[in-house]
User: Which sequence fits this backbone?
């Protein structure tokens, strides 16, 4: 059976785990990363490092980085270079709307759809589009909600022949980062991969320092640390002031929340 999937691989924990999930279910995967001028572009380095690690472990993934740098000066978001500082706090706080990049997932989705449909036509098989969107994203990011996915998919079908050969795969849509890590643990066992070696090749921080070390105060980092604490594991990525400081900061947030 020719099981094909295309994934939007940001280099973050969520999409990287979806990639593991696909490999654990015997999919042949094409991964695409996007450079859109994000401040946290260390995630692109991590995506490339993970692809190389998986290849050496016997799990080759076709990988392509697509550059959209011409958009940087035209986008209004604190997440892109030239924007204001990335805010701190939990995602449900109103200031986190400043991290929204206008129409980001629609831009990515259109390209991924084109790649997936091309593979479907060339290989004569169905292709899944895989994304790591999860419930924690829904409140702040409208383009991570099922309503958007359904409408976007309908537009894709209206605009293309044979579009029904392409379907979506969003396994974490109703889960959180803890659920994602649980699935990552399971996939690592199936694939005989070292969990820490995988996840140190991911980035979740929106405010990494010049050395690529993660912050522990922006919403994405807080959610990641909470998930590792719940899982009972030390996060293998390097934090600006060390894991113990990051851990204590988030534990205090949980007490006060």
Assistant:
């Amino acid at each position: 059976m020719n099981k094909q999937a295309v994934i939007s691989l940001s280099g973050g924990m969520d999409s990287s785990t979806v990639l593991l999930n696909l490999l654990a279910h015997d999919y042949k995967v094409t991964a695409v990363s996007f450079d859109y001028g994000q401040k946290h572009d260390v995630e692109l380095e991590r995506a490339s490092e993970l692809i190389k690690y998986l290849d050496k472990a016997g799990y080759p993934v076709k990988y392509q980085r697509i550059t959209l740098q011409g958009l940087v000066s035209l986008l209004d978001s604190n997440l892109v270079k030239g924007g204001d500082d990335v805010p701190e706090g939990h995602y449900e706080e109103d200031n986190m709307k400043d991290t929204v990049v206008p129409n980001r997932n629609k831009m990515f989705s259109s390209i991924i759809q084109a790649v997936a449909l091309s593979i479907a036509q060339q290989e004569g098989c169905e292709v899944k589009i895989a994304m790591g969107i999860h419930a924690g994203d829904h409140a702040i990011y409208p383009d991570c909600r099922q309503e958007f996915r359904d409408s976007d998919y309908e537009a894709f079908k209206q605009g293309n022949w044979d579009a029904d050969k392409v379907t979506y795969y969003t396994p974490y849509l109703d889960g959180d980062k803890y659920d994602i890590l649980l699935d990552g643990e399971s996939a690592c066992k199936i694939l005989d991969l070292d969990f820490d070696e995988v996840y140190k090749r991911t980035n979740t921080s929106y405010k990494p320092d010049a050395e690529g070390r993660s912050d522990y105060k922006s919403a994405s980092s807080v959610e990641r640390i909470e998930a590792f604490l719940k899982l009972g594991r030390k996060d293998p990525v390097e934090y600006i002031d060390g894991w113990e400081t990051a851990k204590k900061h988030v534990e205090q947030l949980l007490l006060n929340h």
